[in-house]
Amino acid sequence: MSHVLKVRNLFKTYGHGDIFRDVTFTLDAGETLGVFGMSGCGKSTLGRCIIGLEKNYRGDVEFNGKNLRRLSNKKFRLERALMQMIFQHPEMSFDPKMRVIDSVTEPVCYHFRKDREDVFSELKPLIKAVGLRPDQFYSYPNQLSGGEIQRAMMVKIYSLSPKLIVADEPTSMLDMSVQAQVLNLMKSLQKERDTACVFISHDPEVMRIMCDRIAVLEKGEFEIMCKREFDDYSENFHEGLPL
Ligand SMILES: Nc1ncnc2c1ncn2[C@@H]1O[C@H](COP(=O)(O)OP(=O)(O)OP(=O)(O)O)[C@@H](O)[C@H]1O
């Protein structure tokens, strides 16, 4: 079986120095790799490089058997639809002036040249699965709670049947009970659809729940640990800060 994602010898530097050095790993369908580290260590930058939002790096990112930087813009856009990123602030992915239904259905309408109502009808089982009502999608983003917006985001992302999701602190802005619901939902959708995931967080507990393997990013070094090694390592952390 070929890997969904192959990251080889990835280096990223900003003006002030190395962000990370020699990041290498592979990810299979249905698998979750956690990326853990304290604030500012470079987790989001790594996520952006993987998904192609940041292209100025050394090394190779191969997705779906294709080296992303060697693709033409047109081919990159096709692959990009199969890689989705969930952000810490989901409301920023929604245009405040557009009804949620329009933001959610737009990518599928665009990629598959389909009508909004047809797309929305096809999404109803997914809407039910995330625990929202179809009528909520006729609201504007500011009329939904943080947890509801993150669920609507799941509908938007999964509507494109992605093979890879990069989730960058997707629940860190939610309160604890909503956080648990959204994490469970992400896990079950991922399992059902066999999606590969890079899950970024500074919360050791969330890492343990969501990830099969965990990589620690510290001072530019990227090290993949088994769960027992991670438990020992993270004992010295609280809320992403070293104790
Ligand atoms: N476009 C940029 N230009 C210059 N420096 C940047 C840029 N983006 C990020 N940085 C710097 O790179 C470092 C890593 O930032 P990044 O956002 O990847 O960290 P992070 O681990 O995701 O942090 P947090 O957990 O706080 O979100 C930081 O020092 C940041 O200031």
Furnish the topology, listing elements before pairings.
Elements lengths: L4 E10 L2 E11 L4 E5 L6 H9 L6 E6 L2 E2 L5 H8 L2 E4 L13 H13 L3 H14 L16 H13 L5 E5 L7 H18 L2 E6 L2 H7 L2 E6 L2 E5 L1 H8 L2 E2 L2 E2 L1
Parallel strand pairs: 3-8, 3-9, 6-7, 7-8
Antiparallel strand pairs: 1-2, 1-4, 4-5, 9-10, 11-12
Q: Your description of this structure?
A:
This protein has helices at 43-51, 73-80, 100-112, 116-129, 146-158, 176-193, 204-210, 227-234, and strands at 5-14, 17-27, 32-36, 58-63, 66-67, 83-86, 164-168, 196-201, 213-218, 221-225, 237-238, 241-242. It has 243 residues and is of the alpha/beta class. It has one domain (5-239): Rossmann fold. The protein has a six-stranded mixed beta sheet, with helices on both faces. Strands 2-1-4-5 form a four-stranded antiparallel beta sheet, with helices on one face. Helix 3 (100-112) packs parallel to helix 5 (146-158) and helix 5 (146-158) runs parallel beside helix 6. The radius of gyration is 18 Å and the shape is globular. The structure holds adenosine-5'-triphosphate. Adenosine-5'-triphosphate binds at residues 14, 19, 37, 39-45, 202.
